[in-house]
User: Fold these one by one.
Assistant:
Number 1:
Amino acid sequence: MTDTTDTRTGWLSDFELEQSRERLPILYVDAIPVRVDSRGEVSHVGLLLRVMPDGSISRALVSGRVLYGELVRDALLRHIEKDLGPLALPRVPASPQPFTIAEYFPDPTVTGFHDPRQHAVSLAYVVPVDGECAPSASALDLVWATPPEAAGVSMSAEMTGGQDRLLRLALGHLGLLP
Amino acid sequence: MTDTTDTRTGWLSDFELEQSRERLPILYVDAIPVRVDSRGEVSHVGLLLRVMPDGSISRALVSGRVLYGELVRDALLRHIEKDLGPLALPRVPASPQPFTIAEYFPDPTVTGFHDPRQHAVSLAYVVPVDGECAPSASALDLVWATPPEAAGVSMSAEMTGGQDRLLRLALGHLGLLP
Amino acid sequence: MTDTTDTRTGWLSDFELEQSRERLPILYVDAIPVRVDSRGEVSHVGLLLRVMPDGSISRALVSGRVLYGELVRDALLRHIEKDLGPLALPRVPASPQPFTIAEYFPDPTVTGFHDPRQHAVSLAYVVPVDGECAPSASALDLVWATPPEAAGVSMSAEMTGGQDRLLRLALGHLGLLP
Amino acid sequence: MTDTTDTRTGWLSDFELEQSRERLPILYVDAIPVRVDSRGEVSHVGLLLRVMPDGSISRALVSGRVLYGELVRDALLRHIEKDLGPLALPRVPASPQPFTIAEYFPDPTVTGFHDPRQHAVSLAYVVPVDGECAPSASALDLVWATPPEAAGVSMSAEMTGGQDRLLRLALGHLGLLP
């Protein structure tokens, strides 16, 4: 999760954002980008390689803050474009219901979802993408894993902050957990 | 709901199907076809005009039986193609979870969902369609209504068997109920 | 929605909260309290009578802010106790998935969910309560309405800020929308 | 999954049921019984020990057929009483939406959900039980496992027909998958 490209937040200085983070839960969205076949079944899950808040390099989902005045749907679209490029053609779900929520805490023992910077609550969605994806901004790389690969232990070992668990919750929601 | 075009059921004669209908709940799928804009938001809901089991002419959703050996996903695709034509390009949801179930009974007072022929339990899904839709088979016509139109009383008055209620449940799931 | 009883927020002065509200979406929970019968079916929906942010008196759902460091589950329990008293015996759902989210804006035309004070995003849950409920704190009264009563126009007319719509979305999720 | 105690099905002889099973998908319910604490969080998952359709002894979920004319809610209550006894005090969810569906086929390679007798489609629900549970009818024993135990490989090894996977999907829905 990164805010470095939230260029629309000029009115909220880094110092002010830092202060708010110590006093309010911050609203996030997490998107699990997927490729679907013509029958609508998920064939691949997209995973970014990027630098995490704690400095490690990790596989990660699309994730980011919801801005003041921004609709959740628009936050999803903005972060997908930021991470997968402008040609990804995401299909944000028609229903506003997230498949789950993830509660990130500075203390990793509270929920298992960990963000050293803040208490963040994330609305999580599975988002099929039809177009060409190119990792942009802070993402170093993008891989497409089959559902069994995504659920495997080697993938988990490369993910931090509990995002491997969020990925498994998404696979469960899709009925694709082995 | 109609089975007249279930041509794959040759091994289950009309007489045999009639007998089973008196002894087992029959598994159905209901699909609410929608048009979505580039942000994924529903702009229109598709409603068929067709002859219902009770002989009346009614606005109706895409609906039909799941066959022996058939996956729910494939039943959805088959009935959408049957009712909207082969170029509808449906996007069946990646998750198998229906947004609700509808329990149809010969007695209309049990649940409000009514099928004079049988006890049927239907799995209901919202399905965006991207392509060209043309009413086919038993459907006489197809209209696209905006969510407020679809939720209105004049549309409800043209639907029977409780399908107007199922439509409102779908709009609620989409956050689009006025 | 009120924060007057959020006594744990001493470290965030009213002035500071006011400032944050102009810069970040604030995380809320909405709870729809229900009575269920022995089969688990909803018999009644609980509605508070209270003073709303805009000064009007209105029927309302249980609603309030999630505090820094607080789990969503605990925020639900705290607000239900605040509004329905300590003997309500709420049964917060085991799954963290809200049945919908409501996005409240100072501008009532954005989503139809309106909060003159802030941009708030609320996670909405249906919560069966088994115990004795007594309106407390800011609530003036509590009534139990049957699902058809709750869905009726006279109830809607007494609710503001879009909470009548949220109530209908809950009834839809429960399959109880007429 | 067993039908030996479906005593209400006298009008459908074993021979006739056998015939229908070769021609129609059979509607089932699967219930994952759980213990919840006062905050509504799942502390334990209930697992039966019983003889499976293929003759093996296996850990299993509560499962069974929906009868002609029976509501899904009543089928859940009946099978929970059949397997956990009359004092289990189940709290069937207020919403009719299952958390997933499981499609069982005689061929174990189709979906991974396997029933040698039939094509069955099951609606799956998590059901908190408050009362005393005693394995009855065909169940030999009942154990309560913590979520980590339930998700573990040793438990999986004792389950057949894909029910270990359904259990993991339930844990995912509950946000309790490790």
Note: The CA atoms of residues 68 and 96 of chain C lie 18 Å apart.
Number 2:
Amino acid sequence: MAQSNETPRVSEPMQQEKLGPLRVRMSVLQQRARTLGIPAVVVVEGMSAAGKGDAISGLIESLDPRGFNVYAMRAPNEQEKRFPWLHRYHQRTPAKGRIAIFDGSWYDEMFAAQFNDDMGDAERQIKRNQTCDMEGKLATSGAVVIKLFLLISQKEQKKRLKKLEGDKHTRWRVSKIDWLQNKHYERAHDIYTEMMEHTSHPFAPWHVILSEDRKSTIRSIYHIMIDAFEQAITQKEALAQSGAAPEYGFVPYVKPIQTAPIQLLGDVDLNKTLEDDTQYKPQLKQAQQRLKDLHNRIYQAKIPVVLGFEGWDAAGKGGSILRLTQALDPRGFQVNPTSAPDATELAHHYLWRFWNHVPKNGHIAIFDRTWYGRVMVERVEKLTAEGDWRRAYDEINQFEHNLADWGAIVIKFWLQIDQEEQLRRFHDRQNTPEKQYKITDEDWRNREKWPLYETAVNEMLQKTSTSFAPWVIVESNNKHYGRLKVLNTVIDAIEARLK
Amino acid sequence: MAQSNETPRVSEPMQQEKLGPLRVRMSVLQQRARTLGIPAVVVVEGMSAAGKGDAISGLIESLDPRGFNVYAMRAPNEQEKRFPWLHRYHQRTPAKGRIAIFDGSWYDEMFAAQFNDDMGDAERQIKRNQTCDMEGKLATSGAVVIKLFLLISQKEQKKRLKKLEGDKHTRWRVSKIDWLQNKHYERAHDIYTEMMEHTSHPFAPWHVILSEDRKSTIRSIYHIMIDAFEQAITQKEALAQSGAAPEYGFVPYVKPIQTAPIQLLGDVDLNKTLEDDTQYKPQLKQAQQRLKDLHNRIYQAKIPVVLGFEGWDAAGKGGSILRLTQALDPRGFQVNPTSAPDATELAHHYLWRFWNHVPKNGHIAIFDRTWYGRVMVERVEKLTAEGDWRRAYDEINQFEHNLADWGAIVIKFWLQIDQEEQLRRFHDRQNTPEKQYKITDEDWRNREKWPLYETAVNEMLQKTSTSFAPWVIVESNNKHYGRLKVLNTVIDAIEARLK
């Protein structure tokens, strides 16, 4: 993602400009951003004792407290360590019109790992790509992303640490790490500088602030915030008037990912059945017993598993999921049904609600319908602008790449049936009392749009089947065949991983 | 809450009845409950090695995995310990139509505390009342609450623990505590029995299952579940037809709480001003400095603070909150704006979304509009049945009592202005560009309903002002006076607590 790098912008201390007018401008901009539904992410990093807390206090003085959150991020606790490292940050990304201020962030985490020699080059590169992916997605969806770094000299740092330790009310704020950083100031400085050079992008630039004087630091922050908000607001208003699809002034950040070849739906052989259908029950039992044992082993090996289910209405998603979960320890899996997003979910990036349901390591998350709604129903029903769903293929590949890099087994099932079979099942549902809840008018409406969906599904399969998160087409005209294929696919994937 | 106690119901092992038909009935009932929007809470407790896991696996075999969650609750971690002990359970209460199965629960926690002599009689009584409150609220809102206890003999327990330890795949499941419980079986048994006798209510009964044979245990569970679901479904359908407000077959669980006297709005003196308005700025600065210091001290003393703001539109909630937060360390407070509930929030108990925003200990949570919407806007706009909002006064008192028992400082501010002042401020907002976003048609509509709101507010103040969570009426025609009163009220409350 180097193409979009740029050098961090350094703010020199301002002359004696009054803060008052800046505060007023900022507070008006916050309201306009809220009205326009523009979210903002503000990352505040810096050398130890550079005054992050003061800077944030100074900044929020002018903000409506009902419109922002400050997140003091510290080292992840045991619980947080069981999720992808960016999980807790994704969860805290702001809703439309809100400002999320991070006092310490993913950069803090990366710095600490590097400073303590806990992170190799490969891991560092992966983590930087992931943060670029996160920030890029936010920016592309219209968010303001501001990254501030407060810089002080080694001498000034020493002075401040001593002062903090001298006061009994602030002593608890000084840790060994802080002193260690002061001792190895040069090294810390180099690590930060190199990190910022590689993570400063036009859509999420770093701003280095020489921060030895509190007032001028806050002044600089206001100028940076005001510029960024004005730019975003102008852009959003221009868009609103033109009605055009979002256009952003930078090369799309997403790195295209190599996909793997996969069948077109038209070529799927739906006549597949079991050689001997009387063998279904025993084979099912056997597969479930096998999966039960494997579930125990991935639990102990702390391997996470993410299974996505998509397919035509009545293709048998529920039945397949049930055959899976019957074999699983209920304490080690979760099924996440996906329906139309509610107001809160709509106010966030479309992948936010799925980040919230990523499994703990050692657990299995099963999604009944998934993030692929973006390129299926949202495309077909025109719920999302074309530019947005077109971009989603790469965004989704990156999302799944995040999970795979973390160590997750990721499989996406497409349950395929033909129109005749669907019609049979719709009628069966209507004629069976305890199945009637399963069939709605919407199912009939979707059915009429079969060709539109088939086009969307084919494009989706081609553009998002990857080595690390493959699509598996399940021939499901024959339910028994389909269920066993799902079970055995999961079993094979886990066994391959455990080898 | 003894009035609603009853003795736990003991299920004898069933004869050799087939499981198949029970499974089918249960799965049909789950679908009907989903369609009717009936949530269910299933608590599974038992002696160590009584087979909770097996029982849950057996139960969910028949359930649609998209309709339930299993929560394996263990001892709270450091993060969870910073919240009220029931917080993590409230967060997991089910949405309409869903089933939450607790493998270990609040009872586990109470048992452990008692078994380890970590809990005095007073605390035990408080915690039991709180669980009764939680279960009662769920039941009253239409949820099925089922509590299962799996009982095995000391001899059987010993046999099973040995067997588990013998197998290298299951060895990790056996802990010292399990053996300790077996050694002191009598004592454990007595504690559980006494606990169940005091927490078995008609709306949330305990079912003790003699659990030495797996099949008959699962059979018993199905019978208990089926009976409970059928009863709830019948009741709900009857209600739907009659259109009557909910009537439940038990004495309302809520214990009325003694309230404190408070003014009627009509008696509030709105002419209050500062003796010398030029003193506003210095007094504000002084109060904010004082609060800043106190914030540090409650942070270190780990005292949580909950501040609720209600009042007429344009009464100055935002301004008062801003003056507060300007004095606070941004890492130690959170402002929670409350607007109309979204779909997810509507699918839960109305207090659920507020439980989700309870502060950590040592932190301050500020609510801009609160849970009192239940007895104001929802009452006036007829969004909630009368029986439901009438019951809410006691429910809310109990909610706040939970927070107070936990150690929180709880204050609710009512910002009072008169109609003339509101009109002035509405016009001012319309005529000031950067304030226009603050005034909407809804504000004008609400204004027309002033008398209806005044009646509702007066009843609310009378019925929910308590010694542990008082209402403070803030005379706000004069903004300076109002803001200082809010600040000083918070300061006084914190100082009183720190003494």
Note: Chain B is about 50% helix and 15% strand.
